[in-house]
Amino acid sequence: MRILLPTCLLAVLLISGSAFGQEHTSNAFAFKVNEPIVLDGNLDEEIWGPEGWNGDFMQYFPSDTSLAIAQSRIKIAFDDNNLYIAAVMENLGPREYVSTSLRRDYRGAQNDGITFVFDTFNDKTNAFQFGVNPYGVQREGLISNGGNRSEDLSLAWDNKWYAEAKIFENHWQVEAIIPLSTVRFKDGAQNWNINFYRIDSDAGERSSWSPLPRNFNMSSIAFNRKLIFEEPLRKNSANISLIPYVAGKTSKNFLENTSEPFKPAVGGDAKVGIGPAMNLDLTFNPDFSQVEVDQQVTNLDRFEIFFPERRQFFLENGDLFDSFGQPRSKAFFSRRIGVDIDSATGQNVQSKIIYGARLSGKISEDWRIGAMNMQTATDSEAGIAGKNFSVLAIQKKVFERSNIGLIYVDKESLGLDEYKSLFHPEEYNRLIGMDFNLNSANGKWTGKAFYHRTFESRETVKPYSFNAYMLFSDIHWGGSVSIQDIGKDFNPEVGFLPRSDFKRLNPDISYMFYPNSSLINRHGPKLEFEGYWNETIGTTDRDYNISYTVRFNSFAELTVTQKNRYLYLFQDFDPTRTGGEKLPAGTDYNTKTLGFEFRSNPRNVFNVKMTADGGEYYTGNYFSLVSELGLRMGYMANISMNFNYARIRLPAPQSDADLILVGPRIDLTFTKKLFWTTFIQYNNQIDNLNINTRLQWRFAPVSDFFLVYTDNYFPSDFSPKQRSLVFKLNYWLNL
């Protein structure tokens, strides 16, 4: 039975990859122009005449069976160097627009905007996305894995392109120029897969040019139509970008009574196009001080929490590296690079990255390749040896939208003098893995199967990770099943693995009703089972969950969940994580909890996100509230308050706890080029008050000056812990 179930699931994955098709609809046409277009948003050039527009947008929300109420039309032209886009978005009458900020890379269903999606290799798996809102604020991003989930769209990717928007009484319009050197595509390409979609806050409507079933994510590229170019595309301009920086930092550690005098630093990145489809990223002495701090969370779980990558160097084609594995077992996690353990304190500390190089992209229509090498510095005072990280990833497209991939990850420690070698002969960690990713042609079936193995100098037992997963999504029915087996000594040091030595089974099924209602858009139940076990103990975790979700036409959403949980402790554990008396290993617990999650209409000036649950908790009980209150003052200011509260009551000898995390955030937009963000986080679980304030001046396209001040205090008496001041100036230069 152990072998039969995974084998059957793998067979279904393979069959589904080729068994499902879709209908094709009309295409768009890109006109060749001989003279560059003047970017002013007026659309008065001859090419923007009445013929050749692409309109008849279809509703995606609240329904997907009728034409959009607020119609849009798009027209595309090109020359040897640029792609030109004109877009006209009609309104139902004079109105106000919603924009949460004038900061680049806006996101959210509340923001008015038009978005252009280009699948330049026609693989229906990866795409470039460019968007503009009525105030001319731009956003650009990368779509991976078919765009099936919201996390498949990353807006952290930056590049140079240009847009102007103008607002009129009954419509707004956009004119955009995207240099062809900005995107990767096959030289001589005659067509791309494309789509356009619009969010209209006034009508409460989302619409797209290529019809999208409303049970799919709006960024899904399974249903894109064709863009036919009048002539084959050629890449004539150089694709080299230099991004040098100069930075400085000073800091003081009050706990250790040490200080770091002001220290200047220089370095930079380079992006070099290798042919039309490959990209070489180089970084020397990188500095990531402009990256925002992570939002703190109250951790009541026994395992590590995942925080996503934000550093620009790792982002383009990032899915080629980080898509291997799944959230509970990732083969490669780039945030492991640049972090090490201080041998004296045992604490995580930042280690200096000396250089990095990464080559990634398409080598043919069906093959993608990625190779990366990075080196960190030796820190003798902290007892940290320099590390070298190498990653090689290869991906082959199969069927229409699926792929098979291979990955190799190698972490080496620099050798000490007595070894007479570059690397320490015993301090290494390596991983080899294979993944199959399923995306059916019609988008209804997605799945994954993988096997990874780690290698170390010590003797290991079962150093592997296996997973097979399948998901089905239709207009009403949805369901998935996942089978996972993580061996006892599987240890991906450059990956992410919260726990090992377990087997996991996780099926779920859901159904969605679509009533004819002016209030409710859809609603339905979901049943889920999740079980963990291993050969030594037997069952260690078991959840039976039932939930009901209601989505409103206003974009608001409510979910109620009842959980029945069994948990076995295989090591001593303090349920409060505050240093109290631990529950002993070998004990087990059955608990019942009830919770809800609510998200209000994001278009409102005042909105709220709230999650609350409570019930039995180990030997006692708990109540937890996680909330975010937001106030939007036009596009000039966004003020939010994160408030997390956990009330834990346990019988003696365990400790009670009232855990509080408060995080006000103020985001001010002075212009489209000047921003100021302040983030304050009080966390009594770690007894810390953190203040992070960041001033950003975008003095040129994708070129910024940052000034960042960070302070940490003891909340009881406001005595300081650690303080730093950082500035950074970077400039993006296209050659």
Automatic annotation (TrEMBL):
Residue ranges of the TM segments: none
Origin: domain of life: Bacteria
InterPro entries from the UniProt entry: DUF5916
CDD domains per the UniProt record, alphabetical: CBM9_like_2
Start and end residues of each DUF5916 domain: 240-377
SUPFAM superfamilies according to UniProt: CBD9-like
Signal peptide interval: 1-21
Key words, A-Z: Signal
Gene3D superfamilies xref list: 2.60.40.1190
Presence of keyword Cell wall biogenesis/degradation: no
Annotated protein name in UniProt: Carbohydrate family 9 binding domain-like
Provenance organism: Algoriphagus zhangzhouensis
